[in-house]
Write a structure and sequence with these properties.
Strands 1, 2, 3, 4, 5, 6, 7, 9, 10, 14, 17 and 18 form a twelve-stranded mixed beta sheet that branches. This protein has a six-stranded antiparallel beta sheet with strand order 13-12-11-8-15-16. By secondary structure, it is α+β, with helices and mostly antiparallel strands.
């Protein structure tokens, strides 16, 4: 039995184990508790629905009713946990353990299926005249704390420091650097600063260096960079490789992460938001979520139309959706598509359906090359890579495939591949197969391990990598 056959048999039996463990996880409390166990499961589902409805009331009501709803949202789950623990203590522990086993076995069975082709990275000579734009206020002062300016200058880069308290046109600074002969542009700051400099780099087809000196740095995370040590990003100046990734646009505004429309975008426009985020949100959400304030949005993405959603998030490549621990992460940055997440909740029942329904009608998740966001007014409030903006309506969001040349360190943490989405229908099909004919084709060794070079291909070294992670040595 060869390697591919052994691997497929292991996956098939893992699928069978996942289905068995899931069935036992549901059956254990029913068998242990009898009719009482069944009643508790029904009560638990009802309690979760009530909790979700209470969260909706907390966000859309004011005064004493809001605090009463918040109390229900907290107390009902706590009471359910206590009731389950007292009534089905051992059965509950066994059921949770079996469910964990089912999830692990199911993901093992589906590993490697539906994966994307590995990205490619190029080794190129170090830049001769790099220019780095640094925001010393980003990330609580990471530029100074990690001595990024001093290290960059020792490596031969020219640093343009954004002086605190002064207004700077980052786009103009980047264009001036290219006009002066810069052969690499870099930015140390948040995603908003990164996007502005990246757009200029893409416009002039020069490499772009990401320095993770912001607060969250989602773009750096999805590139596999070290967010805890932004100084390590500067290693790309001397020992770097180049990746081709996509760049998003909301109208004329570039974004490396996402552009949001709706409730959140309206809240961040408030002058009081930066000083009191929670208070401002609680004050504005009731009118925004019930449609009494803010624009009425209509979003068109491919063949799908979202009418009057409370929020629309358009991302530069889709986010992971099947892994709760990977939310906010992107598997790749070079798919040439936008991710679209739309939320429309029309009341407490709709809010409960978001939690209880595995495929709720109020949640839209899809991918499209272009998204058009319309409104019943001339301008739309938007949050573009965390920056509050007002854009003329309609807003055409698009992606420029492979427009950005990103230079990253050859040695970097990389992007951990996300676990496969737990698809029970695929697990049933895999568990039911008998012969080798159903084995995924990716398990078979290819006939040709090396693809011949095209005679007209450029003379450069290209190394395949997994996603945007580090290359092998």
């Amino acid at each position: 039995m060869d390697w591919s056959r052994r691997g497929y048999h292991a996956q098939r039996w893992a699928a069978r184990g996942a289905l068995l463990a899931a069935a036992l996880a549901v059956a254990t409390p029913l068998v242990y508790g009898g009719l009482r166990g069944l009643a508790l499961l029904v009560l638990g589902a009802a309690g979760l629905g009530l909790s979700a409805a209470a969260v909706w009331w907390t966000l859309t009501l004011r005064g004493p009713l809001r605090w009463g709803a918040a109390l229900v949202a907290v107390c009902v789950p706590a009471a359910l946990l206590a009731l389950f623990a007292v009534t089905l203590f051992w059965a509950l522990l066994v059921s949770l353990a079996l469910w964990g086993l089912a999830v692990w076995s199911g993901r093992y069975a589906l590993r490697g299926t539906g994966g994307h082709a590995p990205a490619r990275e190029r080794r190129l000579p170090p830049p001769r005249k790099p220019v780095l734009i640094m925001n010393p206020r980003s990330g609580g002062g990471k530029v100074g704390r990690f001595r990024l300016r001093e290290k960059a200058e020792r490596l031969g880069a020219r640093v343009v420091l954004l002086e605190p308290g002064q207004q700077h046109d980052v786009t103009e600074l980047a264009r001036r650097a290219v006009a002066d002969g810069a052969d690499l542009l870099g930015a140390a700051g948040g995603d908003g600063t990164q996007a502005l400099v990246a757009a200029v780099a893409a416009e002039h087809d020069v490499p772009f260096l990401v320095i993770s000196a912001g607060t969250r740095n989602h773009f750096a995370l999805d590139l596999g960079l070290d967010r805890g040590n932004p100084a390590a990003c500067l290693d790309a100046l001397t020992d770097g490789v180049e990746l081709r990734v996509d760049l998003g646009f909301a109208g004329d505004q570039p974004f490396v992460n996402n552009a949001s429309f709706g409730a959140y975008a309206a809240i961040v426009q408030s002058p009081a938001y930066r000083d009191d985020k929670i208070g401002t949100s609680l004050e504005m959400l009731p009118d925004l979520l019930t449609g009494q304030q803010g624009p009425r949005l209509v979003a068109h993405a491919g063949d799908t139309t979202l009418t009057a959603p409370q929020a629309v998030l358009v991302s530069n490549n889709p986010y992971r959706t099947g892994d709760p621990f990977g939310l906010g992460r992107r598997e790749r940055l070079d798919s040439g598509t936008l991710g679209v997440l739309g939320v429309k909740v029309e009341g407490a029942i709709s809010a409960a359906a978001l939690l209880l329904n595995p495929d709720p009608a109020g949640l839209t998740v899809l991918a499209a090359p272009e998204v058009v966001v319309e409104a019943d007014r001339d301008e739309i409030e938007a949050g573009v890579d965390g920056e509050a903006m007002v854009l003329p309506a309609p807003v055409h969001c698009r992606v420029a495939p492979g427009a950005l040349r990103v230079r990253v360190p050859r040695k970097r943490p990389g992007v951990a591949p996300g676990p496969p989405r737990l698809d029970w229908r695929r697990l049933r099909k895999l568990a039911a197969t008998v012969g080798r004919t159903a084995a995924p084709t990716h398990l078979h060794w290819p006939r040709h391990r090396h693809r011949p070079r095209h005679p007209d291909s450029p003379d450069r070294q290209e190394t395949p990598t997994s996603g945007t992670g580090p290359s092998g040595t």
